Amino acid sequence: MALETSLAEPAPVRQIANAIAGWVDRLGAVWVEGQVAQVSRRPGLGTVFMTLRDAVADISVPVTCSRVLFDSLNPPLVEGASVVIHAKPSYYANRGTLSLAAREIRMVGLGELLARLERRRQLLAAEGLFERHLKRPLPFLPTRVGLVTAPNSAAERDVLENARRRWPAVRFEVAYAAMQGTRSCAEVMEAIDRLDRHPEVDVIVVARGGGSVEDLLPFSDEALVRAVAATRTPVVSAIGHEPDQPLLDLVADVRASTPTDAAKLVVPDVVDELRGVEAARERLRSVLAGWLAREQAGLDALRSRPALADPRSLVEARVTEIEQLRDRARRTLGHRLDRAADDIDHQRARARALSPLATLERGYAVLQDADGHVVTSVAGVAAGAAVSVRVADGRVHATTTGVEADPLETTGGTDG
């Protein structure tokens, strides 16, 4: 019912706001199409706030939905996606704002296409086709670079010119294929297979310029993704520009943001490499010079030692030591010989003193009978017996004329 107001009886703000809320509530649930312009998820709240913008006019309306509904969307809802929302309009009287409480959200147009691509990406990722450990490193300097691109395209010129500018001797094996349209996927797969079987191709570049999502759709084809995953040759994906990311970028061994970037990735820069070689040569020279200087300093230190400066000094020192030892040995030997000679003389003197010859030399003699027995008593010798007298220098043979006994011996000695 329309409110009856007048200048004399105006309605208060709360009455008008409540009336508007009632009118909006009677509108019921509606289907609304638009583009998501802003998404806000506040921590601790079970509600997600969004802004839905009209695709043509500059008009937008706030939208709220439960966190459970928002999180259940596959693929996740992002800003810029086109959607159709089944929502209940509501008017918040306290702030005077109109919003839509979303009950269902569906992707449409490009959003639906992106949703299908996201589901395909999740399926292939679950199979492990995008795993990092499957990525193969690019060769430092490939023998030949395989290039899959459209004939006479800007991507072909970018790759060839930039690669040859970086490394003039680089060689290419170009396989042309349609890079857009219904025949694109099959031709690109055939070209990749031919280059993969080429014995000299060390890396394959798939290059195409930028385009819309629909134009780049062949490079997200499941058959193409699996064909690239099965190749033995490393593959570089150079599709579109930096924001573009078809599924080929995920399965390729290396992703290049542009065809020009792909040329920089597959071949080194000859100028940088020459600088690196020169820097390495200088470092080698410096290290070698330092090593030689250290070795020369060590050699000089060794040569400066007295033993090496004049090796004869060691011999001369030993000669002097040997001479001293020899003199000591001679003196010691002389002393020992002298002591031994003195000892011999002493022993000789003792032996001579005890020898019977020494007694004989003092005038004594030894008397022996004819049988050679020593005569110690006159009783053993008769007159006229042949005897032998042993003196110091020989023997005297004689015959006794008589025997005379010692009176003292006969009487047994004297008394006093």
From TrEMBL:
Residues 129-350 form the Exonuclease VII large subunit C-terminal domain. It comes from Nocardioides marmotae. The keyword Lyase does not apply. Keywords: Cytoplasm, Exonuclease, Hydrolase, Nuclease. It is found in: Cytoplasm. It is an enzyme of class 3 (hydrolase). InterPro entries: Exonuc_VII_L, Exonuc_VII_lsu_C, OB-fold_nuc-bd_dom. It holds the Pfam family tRNA_anti_2. GO terms for molecular function: exodeoxyribonuclease VII activity; nucleic acid binding. It catalyses: Exonucleolytic cleavage in either 5'- to 3'- or 3'- to 5'-direction to yield nucleoside 5'-phosphates. Heterooligomer composed of large and small subunits. This is Exodeoxyribonuclease 7 large subunit. Belongs to the XseA family. NCBIfam families: xseA. GO terms for biological process: DNA catabolic process. Its EC number is 3.1.11.6. Residues 13-106 form the OB-fold nucleic acid binding domain. Bidirectionally degrades single-stranded DNA into large acid-insoluble oligonucleotides, which are then degraded further into small acid-soluble oligonucleotides. Its main location: cytoplasm. It comes from the Bacteria. One of its GO terms (cellular component) is cytoplasm.
